[in-house]
Write a structure and sequence with these properties.
The protein is of the alpha+beta class. The chain has one domain (11-337). The chain is built from four helices and eleven strands; from the N terminus they run H-H-H-E-E-E-E-E-E-E-E-E-E-E-H.
Length: 349
């Protein structure tokens, strides 16, 4: 006895395929949201660990981490002294000449032409997962790694002076227009440079003036908790930064010019990052405008950037973590970047 078996018609098959496509289309945004939420949570956890490591460093040494070595540029940044507090003691021991006083001594890589020991190149070529945001793609420069977390150099420029350079009579938020006065920062950067690069060759930084502070007159001068008169819960410590594509040195945190951020411009700004002394490769996707030329009005600085929807993750000097939206006013953002500005503000405004 023969049984008639009826298969799918072409129209029925097309309808089933269309329904499946619609379901996938509806499901995909939800999956992407879950992935982004997970990436954002991981990113926040990384920043929490960095902020706590800085606090543990302060407990041991009485100051926060130095932003850069005492002569700036190429003899290590905060990335070196933080390593023992991020379970990277062995990596820390491989690095030599942190904060070096010489041009030819060990720097961050053996291929710099300065005779750097291979240990420094090994350190700078090590990818550290805790310093990478999963929303961004891993980038390298030669063999050396770039990362996504940077320390707060204040509300103006890495030179840690007023903007426009050497202007007077302004406010820390620029609320009166014109001059934006430097309001202090929890981490030292190029505050004693010639305002064009780091210090001059042979990068000796000059002799510190007489006084009780042995670090006075040097770049990267470590700050004490008591220097943060605005309060540790009102002062940014860490933010995100997108790693530069190709030879772009943003996020090359072994180098001082790629290891910090300022709050002069709001997160994910359309204004240029100013990579003085480094390499700039602007991109539109992700949006990363830049220049390598400082001007009087916009001198050496990097802005907070991320691929999270609508803002960036940050951590404060007390170790707390906060998501800051791109829509934050520039006045509040600048106030959050100062350590001694005396401003009254709320992130929720």
């Amino acid at each position: 006895m023969r049984t008639n078996r009826r298969g799918f018609t072409l129209i029925e098959l097309l309808v089933v395929i269309a329904i499946i496509a619609i379901l996938i289309g509806l499901l995909l945004p939800a999956v992407q949201k879950v992935r982004e939420a997970a990436a954002r949570s991981t990113c926040q956890n990384n920043m929490k660990q960095i902020a706590l490591a800085n606090m543990n460093y302060e407990s041991a040494y009485g100051t926060f981490l130095p932003g850069v070595g005492q002569n700036g540029c190429c003899w290590g940044t905060w990335m070196i002294p933080i390593l023992p507090y991020m379970e990277q003691e062995n990596l820390f021991r491989n690095y030599t000449n942190f904060g070096g006083l010489d041009y030819s001594g060990g720097r961050y890589g053996a291929d710099t032409g300065t005779g750097s020991p291979s240990g420094n190149n090994f350190v700078a070529s090590t990818k550290l997962k805790t310093f990478l945001c999963p929303s961004d793609t891993v980038q390298i420069w030669g063999t050396r790694t770039k990362h996504n977390y940077v320390l707060n150099a204040g509300n103006t420029t890495f030179f840690q002076t007023n903007l426009p350079l050497n202007c007077t009579g302004g406010t820390t938020t620029g609320s009166s227009g014109g001059c934006v006065s430097f309001g202090g920062a929890p981490f030292g950067w190029y505050e004693n440079s010639d305002q064009s690069g780091d210090s001059t060759v042979p990068y000796n930084g000059g002799a510190p003036p007489a006084g009780p502070d042995k670090n006075a007159g040097k770049m990267g001068r470590p700050r004490k908790v008591t220097d943060i008169t605005d309060g540790s819960s009102n002062t940014l410590a860490v933010s995100e930064l997108l790693a530069g594509r190709g030879d772009d040195l943003r996020g090359f945190t072994w180098w001082g010019g790629g290891a910090g951020f300022t709050t002069f411009s709001v997160p994910n700004t359309t204004e240029d990052d100013v990579i003085t002394g480094g390499i700039c490769v602007p991109t539109t996707n992700p949006r990363m405008p830049c220049t390598d030329v400082s001007t009087m009005t916009r001198a050496r600085l990097l802005s907070a950037r991320s691929l999270h929807t609508g803002g960036v993750n940050t951590s404060l000097c007390d170790g707390s973590v906060r998501f800051v939206r791109d829509s934050i006013s520039v006045q509040i953002w600048r106030a959050a970047g100062t350590s001694q500005g005396g401003e009254t503000f709320s992130f929720d405004n």
